[in-house]
Amino acid sequence: MHGWTAEDGGPRRQQWLEGAQLNLAATETLQVTSRTMMVVTMVVMPSPDELFVLCHTGGDDAVSWVEQVHPETLETLATSDKLPGGRAWPGGIAVHPKGDLYVVFGNHAHRLNRQLHTVVSRELPRLRPYNSFVLLPDGHLVTKDFSGSRPGNEVAEPFDSTELVVLEPDNLRIVSTLELPEASIARLSADDDDIYVIGTSALWRAMDWIRTRAGGVSGAVPKLGGSDLWLGCSDCRWLCLVLGQWGVHPQICRHATWSRHSHRPAASGPSVAGLGSSSPHRHLR
């Protein structure tokens, strides 16, 4: 199998690869080759002769590294330098459509070329582990921090809220952030430009991302109509950015349908309990 360029097969996490099959004949059997490695997190295989493995240490000053191993013998062919990390929690690796490898581990993101040389590294905003990332169709990375308990570091609930971070792929520059109203433990998923976040009490969707361009570099900013980002969760509590401040907008807290090119959703159905038209504007950040 080749073409496995991200964990779970891609941002939708369907865990399958179109066209992949074993093609075993009736008289053939499977053979297993194994070896011991240090805390293997993820494996990607962009081509039949390339297999990259993400490893890391533990603790609050953990580091990560990438090894290229032989796809049949699993012998190490090349190893990256130790990559700055931080507080340990399993991170992630992906092969970008442009060819380079990207790693998020601890509170750092890294871009490596296929020879495992570091191209650029970026420290992420919060002193927490960031548990992997997803790639958007235009190549941007979206990651988030993890605020739950870790081995040896128990944290009382409610956990601190999670923040989405969008990175442009060339220099890993932060182009957008979004703080959610609650914590998230699970990894992100994405479908096209829509980001799905499993929170501690609800499923959230950050949707309708617009692209801006400056100097030929594409940057992501939230959008509703001209400037605002919509969020919706599984129990229909709709949120939006209104006049530059996060809050529940009293006029549109309803079950809603979304048109990507419309300025606002078409509201239909009853008001959400507790968030009707008489509810005050509630700031979330």
Describe this structure in words.
The protein is 0% helix and 42% strand. It is mainly beta and 285 residues long. The strands form 6 sheets. It has a 6-stranded antiparallel beta sheet with strand order 14-15-16-19-20-21, with no helix packed on it. Strands 1, 2, 3, 4 and 5 form a 5-stranded antiparallel beta sheet that branches. A 4-stranded antiparallel beta sheet has the order 6-7-8-9, with no helix packed on it. The chain is globular and about 55 Å long. The C terminus is likely disordered.
Secondary structure topology:
Layout: E1 40-47, E2 50-56, E3 62-69, E4 76-79, E5 83-86, E6 92-95, E7 101-105, E8 108-112, E9 118-123, E10 130-135, E11 141-145, E12 163-167, E13 174-179, E14 189-191, E15 194-198, E16 203-207, E17 209-214, E18 217-222, E19 230-233, E20 238-242, E21 245-247, E22 254-257, E23 266-271
Antiparallel strand pairs: 1-2, 2-3, 3-4, 3-5, 6-7, 7-8, 8-9, 10-11, 11-12, 12-13, 14-15, 15-16, 16-19, 17-18, 19-20, 20-21, 22-23
